[in-house]
């Protein structure tokens, strides 16, 4: 595989930092029905500050997943992660637009099921594998740093760019990208390979007092998708040149 997305994640951050419970499973049932998801739960313990000090609170960690684990929705405190993972060499990820449409549908269903939830941050993350021949692997390091005569076989570089999500917008997005070379294997492979991994995490900045309505969510997801794919294309150009 060359320049292949191996997983995707969309994360929405909400204003409520509460524990999930058994009643939530009934509320989430329409979501499970529409996307053919099965629930997985684990008991969790958290603590709440009260006039009598810290009091323990029992709750559930809820994850909804397909029977092959290729798609899942994970509910944490104050966040929901929507993930699509490549699980075999034959598993070709759907177009990114299809993934984003599914994310938008899930967000819409969740905000209807939980009307008090206010979404205050969004993230879109992609991981991409580059399988290169040895010549391009060796030269890849020098595409990003000052040339060095040493044979560097493992390395990792991280960049963070902060910019408005669109021209004239006051909503700032952190564009985080990490590129690395190492010997590793994906979850569906039998043997590791020496390869390049690009990880992107484009997320709206913490501390912005914004209530993300459906139209704004769509606009930000589309903008971050476009910028992410442009970045991956640029990495592809540099690495295969």
**Helix-strand pattern, N to C?**
EHHEEEEHEHEEEH
Shape: globular
Q: Kindly state the number of beta strands.
A: 9
Ends apart, CA distance between termini: 17 Å
Per DSSP, the total helix count is: 5
Q: What's the multimeric state?
A: single chain
Describe this protein's structure.
A hairpin with a 2-residue loop joins strand 4 and strand 5. This protein has helices at 22-27, 29-35, 96-113, 134-140, 214-240, and strands spanning 4-14, 38-50, 53-65, 71-76, 79-85, 119-130, 155-164, 172-184, 193-204. The two termini are 17 Å apart. The longest helix is centred in the last third of the chain and has 27 residues, at 214-240. It is globular and about 65 Å long. Helix 3 (96-113) packs antiparallel against helix 5. With 241 residues, the chain is an alpha+beta fold. Helices cover 27% and strands 40% of the residues. A nine-stranded antiparallel sheet has the order 2-3-4-5-1-6-9-8-7, with helices on one face.
Q: Could you write a compact summary of the structure shown?
A:
This protein is 27% helix and 40% strand. With 241 residues, it is of the alpha+beta class. Helix 3 runs antiparallel to helix 5.
Question: Can you give keywords for this protein?
Answer:
single chain, 241 residues, alpha+beta, nine-stranded antiparallel β-sheet, 5 helices, 27% helix
Topology:
Blueprint: E1 4-14, H1 22-27, H2 29-35, E2 38-50, E3 53-65, E4 71-76, E5 79-85, H3 96-113, E6 119-130, H4 134-140, E7 155-164, E8 172-184, E9 193-204, H5 214-240
Antiparallel strand pairs: 1-5, 1-6, 2-3, 3-4, 4-5, 6-9, 7-8, 8-9
